[in-house]
Input
Amino acid sequence: MASVRRIGAKPLEFASRPCCNRIYCSELTAGHNMVFGKGFCLISDDGPSITLMNESPLQLFEITCDSILSLIRCADIYGIHAISLFRGESPDLPLIGRIIKEKEVSLHAHSWQWTMRREEYDEFDNDGHLRSMCEHIVFSSYVAVESYLKGKFKEYFDHMYKAPDQERQDLLLKRISLRCLQELDEHYGKYLQINLAGFNHPQVSTYAEAEWFNPASSWQGLRQLEKCRNQLAHSGKMNSAKLVVLVDAMSVFEFCRRYAMLFEANYDSYIYQGRAVKHEGTVR
Output
């Protein structure tokens, strides 16, 4: 089964083997519905997506995540077809139908070692079947979490520094540049007394099989993804990312999603309720 790796932990090694008919779940799939297909199992989040007129930064982030999941499902289906062609088999159409109709993903999105043989992985590596799609999943995931942090800064700033009217409030914010992670870290510390670079919740994790993305801390992970974003934006390719199979990008997506949710819980209670900050996100 796919394994979740804590931030800063050493990479784990696995024996490569195709998926069996029965898989016992780890914490990765806790709380999810699972449906089994030929060589893959489906994993889906229950719960409707709710869109409000005035979305909070977290709600906007979740809307973006839904869009990224659409791209992940496309890559998932492409991968299923590619593996079937490599094996000379017909693709599992019922499984693909479930992915499309029920907005789920197969186990391939979370683990290649349970769904592919080593020679199939090497084929994906040599031919780059999923690289472009994975690059854009990584790109979009980072942009989503960066936009979330910018939105939370504005939300917290509005709460702590209320101007007499909205026009003056907007003018205050325009004087603060939030173009990159370094500036976000500086202004979070200066205006909100939040050590953004120090926030390192233990539940923010990566997938052990995504060996290229193994940051020592959440902040290091964000900096690594910022570099990937800049590479794709300026050169059209993420030279520092080894994106072979879907789990290589899914690890980043889940990292960003966990980071935003845990950041929300940690700092909303600090800003609005005055509770102590936990997990190394200490006041400067």
Notes: The chain is about 50% helix and 5% strand. Confidence is low (pLDDT under 50) at residues 10-53.
